[in-house]
Amino acid sequence: MTTSNSLVYLIALPLAGAALLLLGGRRTDKWGHFLATALSASSFGVGLYQLSQMLGRSNEARPVSQKLFEWINVGSFNVDAGLLLDQLSICFVLLITGVGTLIHIYSISYMSHDHDRRRFFAYLNLFIAAMLLLVLGDSYLNLYVGWEGVGLASYLLIGFWNQKPAYATASKKAFVMNRVGDMGLSFAIMIAFATMGTVSFSGVAEHAHHTSEAALTAMGIMLLVAAAGKSAQFPLQAWLGDAMAGPTPVSALIHAATMVTAGVYLITRSNFVFDAAPTAQLLVVIVGAITLMFGALVGTAKDDIKKALAASTMSQIGYMVLAAGLGPVGYAFAIMHLLTHGFFKAGMFLGAGSVMHGMNDEVNMRRYGALRKFMPITFVTFGLGYLAILGVPPFAGFYSKDMIIETAFNAGGVKGIILGVTTLIGASITAFYMSRVMILTFTGTKRWDDNAHPHESPWLMWLPMAVLAIGSVSSGFLLSRGDALVNWLAPLFEHHAEHEEHLLEPIVVSALALTMVAIGVAIAFFKYSRQEVASVAPEDVSIFTKIARQDLMQDRFNEAVFMRPGQALTATLVAADNAVVDGTVRGVAKTALGSGSALRGLQNGFVRSYAALILVGAIALIGAIWVVVQ
Amino acid sequence: MNAANYLYVSALLFTIGAVGVVVRRNAIVVFMCIELMLNAANLSFVTFSRINGDLNGQVMAFFTMVVAACEVVVGLAIIVTIYRSRRSASVDDASLLKR
What we know:
Chain A is mostly helical. Helix content of chain A is 72%, strand content 3%. Chain A is built from 24 helices and three strands. By secondary structure, chain B is an all-alpha fold.
């Protein structure tokens, strides 16, 4: 393995930016955002340099490591704070710093009216640093530090406008639900330490061969819990919709392109665990399949453009998790969809931000309509992202999503058919709700108030959108040409080249997928383009719509199953504490007090009674001695 | 003569003194009762000295007399002072410590 001393700069640059802006205070207000953007861009530059170095080496020599310092050294347990940049991390590094830099540029303009813009950029830089640590850490423990770091940055940014109580609550909700996942990750680390005595990726990969399957399954399930928490997968997905309370660039960067894909990274990185634990792997697939349908169904009912996109993110990450759960054949496709999704979803979120920017921060799509004429650039860039997520050839999603559907069909047996059909239906619903977003926002008649003056956003905002749109168009083609990404990642995964028979030919899968997508688009077209759209959400809707509007009752479920019993438990514990613990303490005090007041009666001030007491005492003492001596 | 008889007298004197301290109100009488108890103890000391045939008890009696003399000086001074301020020598009247 090659070593390099420049890996640390990837993290150190944005971290220095965050520290400088947070500690520098108001003095850095004037130029803070430029500094943050420049540091993020230079981190991207380091990433590109590393990529160019990596391309020049053979497969085996490509991973680069750097030891920072000795972190924990207890007995036989050694953990170094070390960085590892291999074929997988470099994909993430470039996505994080690349998309991150674009979103920094976008935010300069988007947040220009916010008097706390400096703090916003400090948090963005903090996020970039933490996310890079997450993907560069060479052990689960190092990853954990980054994992918590992005959770903190996410919390700070969701609640950036915490003067609104609802937004502050949303950030707390995200934080608490993420804690559940974090607990899973810490358990996984403990299991790794207890059974293998090491927590580094290379160490666990080595020991995984001769560790019991039960331990690996337990570790895999705990890793899945962690991934579900961070990536908003079922059953820990409820926080993502509320996370849209954060400023839109945050939603684009953290809650669409990068942080929420950390779960996919974790599963892919832990391939050696999941490959040896089929039960855990099956659970991954099931979670992915449920979430992709869940997110898609929620997406159909949301009128808030950001929440619709958030539901879509959830669904698309479901695709990635499903692919990652299919084992070595699926890892590369999961990463490919992750990268293309990073482009088109970030682009669409920025487009949504651009629309909101021009519409007085209105998020209700029923109050949009006919914005195509007023925001042509936003329309085009959003539209390219839309075509990409639908999977229309030759846009990015076509390559990545079709690969996942195809892999799902070829998983073999009933499982393959169920997964294949699920992904196909998911694609159709995706087409429906994304078309709904497009139609409601950009076409039809205008449904906004007269005091809204829609206008195209300044160039600082549309430039990143345009770059991301180019990515949405080309990334799929570039990554899949000659199986570029698959071959790039192949050395990391143990691929047993057993060519099982294909259930469906790729061309058939593509045709099926396109047909399903066309059906989805057609339904949306007839429902929203041919009919008048109400500017207020109709109340007399079917029970299914009502349920979907409430995120399929997930919050209600959590409240009934976890929150209320939790409250009851704490109430009981408080009552028990009051009765037993406090009762004992108070009882002792009361006894002392009562006996004291009773004895106080003896102290009456009369000398003769004192003398009598002394006499009685002396006689009693003599009597006692008498008895003892006898 | 049987030495035990001296002890009986001593016990009788002590009891009279003790009852007097508890029962009587006049500070002078209480004071005299205390003297009575001290001297009952002295009598016991001397008697035991005689029974055991050594001088320890007699020496002890001298110590008691010295202590009693000191006590008389201090005690009478207190009683006189109380009498001057309250025109009464009753020990029950001097019960201000309680409040």
